[in-house]
Amino acid sequence: MAAVHRVAAAVEPAQLGSYQEAARLVLLHSVISEGHPRPGALAVVLRWADELAEDFRSLFGYTLHTTARHARLIRRLDVFDGSQAIVAANSGRRPFDRRRLAYLCLVLACLHGSRVEIALADLVKDFSPHANAIDHLGFDPTAPGHKDAIVDVIDWLVQYGVLRVSDGSTQAWARDPDRGDALFDIDHELCSALFRPGKPLQHLTSAAGLLEIPASGVGRDARRRHGAQRARRAVIEHPVVYFADADPETAAALRQPTLAEDLVRLTGLQIERRAEGIMLVDTTGHFTDRRFPGRGGAVNRTAGLLLAKIADLQEDPDRSRELKRMRPPDPTEEHADLLARIDLALPHAGTLDALALDAPTADSSASPERAEADDAVAEPLRVVELPLVEDARLVEMINELYEEFGPASFTNKWQADPRGLLTEALVLLADLRLVHPVPGGVLVRPAAGRYRNITAVLPHPKTDGQFAFDFSAAEDTF
């Protein structure tokens, strides 16, 4: 029988806080350099590099690569989702769209063949033929959005330290490419660290080949180990994990007390367990890329106010009876649909057929051993119907907020666009797994009840808003 892995086994109690800080840094920032996310962060991580590498490998199946100048965490994905989007370095902090992602890959390829420094004009000259050779992509500095996209990519690389500005600026080039320019020093080591696919992309016949799927025919112990890793990855990567969304092995692992013990010791955070699921709670607000609740912009504040209105709706005996209830969509079917849509864009012409890797398939055999194992580890999952808040009611809620607080309270960007603000607030709540968008509205997920008592102050638009949150909840439910 394999020995049980002990988290931070070689770390002295007095040093555990430093170790946990390093673990949170690596999990929050997959790439850490001398200047990103802040000066001194790399030194904190390198101090515990060996211990972190062992814990990440054993707990999650992740690989931590470190050098004297950077640390890079290679994750394994169980499903595709939007939780690890690349976000622009500018003040807008918008996720990269498909054009920016494609430009980023092409720019990295161009930098790989460059020397120690490069001018922005020369980089664009090298990059343009590759972009123009791809149907429906292209690069034309006079086309709307193309120049902004390349600037966002360059600024993002500067933020991570791949490029260092030695002269000029991207803004000068963007204003006038004929007169303005920028000169960059290139960190080739960090450039290579950014793009580290687990498999050669030209060998894949489906995006499913990038996922961590257990091989078919494995034994019960192997399935349990893989289920435990999936469970730990789910809790560490997502705001909340619902038992009903998990397969039997993963759901069983989520209920094990050792999962909470390991993650609490690794991160220094707390586990909150309820009848519907489990979440890792960070009361400081620093171990997250989407702070909620707390101070934030108009979208964050509006999302909190919408939750308060939804809570009022559910607690009103008369109005709550009018709400329709329905089962949430099957997550397996939703993911299969997403995977099929991703594969529609797969460039089959570039696949090396002789070296092509078929997408792995999970074991679906109904062997006696499998049935016995499932009976042993799986509890019946309660698939409950969730309340549906329809689009018309959501529009009514946002209109009420504008009437109550005044359009100017929602900043210049949104004061004339309540529908747009509603859309962005619902995207945030969906990312946090508090609501689930469906045709015609949103389903209210159980964890939304954790924020049932919310009061908010929306002051003058030039000052920050503040929320007061009551986290009180029954012990057996969110």
Describe the structure.
The protein has 18 helices and 15 strands. The chain has helices spanning 16-28, 41-47, 49-60, 98-112, 120-132, 146-160, 170-175, 188-194, 220-237, 248-254, 257-267, 298-315, 317-320, 331-343, 368-377, 391-405, 411-414, 418-431, and strands at 31-33, 63-66, 70-74, 117-119, 163-168, 182-186, 241-242, 270-273, 277-281, 324-326, 386-390, 435-438, 441-444, 453-457, 466-470. A hairpin with an 8-residue loop joins β14 (453-457) and β15. It is globular. The model is unreliable at 363-378 and 454-475 (pLDDT under 50).
Q: Count the strands? A: 15
The proportion of residues in beta strands is 5-15%
State the helix count.
18
- The amount of helix comes to 40-55%
Overall SS class: alpha+beta
Reported for the largest beta sheet, the result is: 4 strands, antiparallel
How far is it from the N-terminal to the C-terminal residue, by CA?
Answer: 37 Å
Overall pLDDT score: 83
Gyration radius from CA atoms, angstroms: 24 Å
What is the topology, as strand order, of the major beta sheet?
Answer: 10-11-13-12
Low-confidence stretches: 363-378, 454-475
Write a brief structural summary:
With 478 residues, this protein is α+β, with helices and mostly antiparallel strands. It contains 18 helices and 15 strands.
